[in-house]
């Protein structure tokens, strides 16, 4: 089986967020970058688990970004990817990113394309569905369980009020969320091996962006907490009604 895992570079969840150039650009100074957790913990680790059961499986990684993304893709190789591809373009437009990935995927015979359910920076959750449309492949989103039986994938996903099970004939695309796998830490052997694993850099294909960022803004600062003692129930009701507006 040939698996393509999509990897995205995102700021660490503890990074201080600021903007420059009139709030039109994210300030990257001092930011620690990580693999998008949904890509790493769930889609990549599940692909590795599949490979552990079937050693003939090949795991290719792909990221769309500049040279600054290479430490991130090297970490993904250290976890267990076999080789990596970086498409040399920086873009915040989901369609541009999906088109780059789809172009690469068309040139290879991937049985399974895996993404995280979303990235933790832009939270658009668009890449999987866009890849499905461009490549004309079936797509299951928000999956939390995947089992392979030959060329048939059995996928579970949570839905409103229950759980849904799908059986899909490969090739297909899947986006993964919590429950799909458990986080792993690269070992020293994997880190050393990642240094020599292939990392191919490709030029991007010409694609028109469909969106642009007009302005960033931070959410309102959190206000202080008001503590109400048990004997102030009338005051609590008043605050809930007038300030919290929940009753």
Short description:
The chain has six helices and 13 strands. It is of the alpha/beta class and 247 residues long.
Task: Tell me about this structure.
This protein has 247 residues and is of the alpha/beta class. The protein has a single domain, classed as 3-Layer(aba) Sandwich (Rossmann fold). It is built from six helices and 13 strands. The protein has helices spanning 37-53, 70-79, 94-106, 127-135, 188-194, 233-244, and strands spanning 2-6, 9-11, 19-20, 25-26, 33-35, 58-64, 83-87, 112-116, 139-149, 152-159, 162-169, 172-176, 199-202. A nine-stranded mixed beta sheet has the order 11-10-9-12-8-1-6-7-13, sandwiched between helices. Strands 2-5 form a two-stranded antiparallel sheet. The longest helix has 17 residues, at 37-53. It is globular. It starts with a strand and ends with a helix. The mean pLDDT is 93.
| Count of separate structural domains | 1
Residue stretches low in confidence (pLDDT < 50, at least 5 long) are none
- Secondary-structure element pattern, one letter each: EEEEEHEHEHEHEEEEHEH
**CATH first level:** Alpha Beta
Specify Rg, calculated over alpha carbons: 21 Å
Strands in their spatial order, largest beta sheet? 11-10-9-12-8-1-6-7-13
What's the CATH architecture name?
3-Layer(aba) Sandwich
What general outline do the C-alpha atoms trace?
A: globular
Features:
Rossmann fold
Topology, please?
Layout: E1 2-6, E2 9-11, E3 19-20, E4 25-26, E5 33-35, H1 37-53, E6 58-64, H2 70-79, E7 83-87, H3 94-106, E8 112-116, H4 127-135, E9 139-149, E10 152-159, E11 162-169, E12 172-176, H5 188-194, E13 199-202, H6 233-244
Parallel strand pairs: 1-6, 1-8, 6-7, 7-13, 8-12, 9-12
Antiparallel strand pairs: 2-5, 3-4, 9-10, 10-11
Helix pairs in contact: 2-5, 3-4
């Amino acid at each position: 089986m040939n698996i393509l895992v999509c990897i995205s570079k995102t700021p660490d969840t503890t990074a201080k967020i600021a903007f420059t150039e009139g709030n039109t650009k994210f300030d990257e100074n001092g930011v620690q970058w990580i693999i998008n957790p949904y890509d790493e913990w769930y889609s990549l680790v599940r692909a590795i688990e599949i490979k552990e059961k079937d050693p003939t499986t090949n795991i290719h990684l792909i990221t769309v970004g500049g040279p600054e993304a290479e430490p991130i893709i090297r970490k993904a190789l250290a976890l267990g990817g076999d080789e990596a591809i970086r498409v040399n373009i920086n873009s915040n437009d989901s369609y541009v990113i999906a088109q780059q990935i789809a172009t690469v995927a068309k040139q290879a015979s991937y049985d399974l394309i895996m993404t995280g359910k979303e990235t933790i920076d832009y939270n658009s959750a668009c890449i999987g569905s866009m890849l499905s449309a461009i490549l004309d492949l079936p797509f299951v989103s928000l999956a939390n369980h995947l089992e392979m039986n030959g060329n048939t994938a059995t996928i579970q996903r949570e839905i409103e009020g229950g759980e849904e099970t799908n059986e899909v004939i490969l090739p297909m695309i899947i986006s993964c969320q919590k429950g799909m796998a458990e986080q792993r830490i690269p070992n020293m052997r994997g880190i050393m091996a990642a240094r020599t694993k292939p990392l191919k850099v490709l030029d991007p294909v010409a694609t028109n962006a469909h969106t642009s960022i007009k302005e960033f803004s931070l959410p309102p600062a959190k206000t202080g907490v008001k503590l109400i003692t048990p004997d102030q129930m009338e005051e609590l009701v008043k605050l809930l009604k007038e300030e919290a507006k929940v009753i």
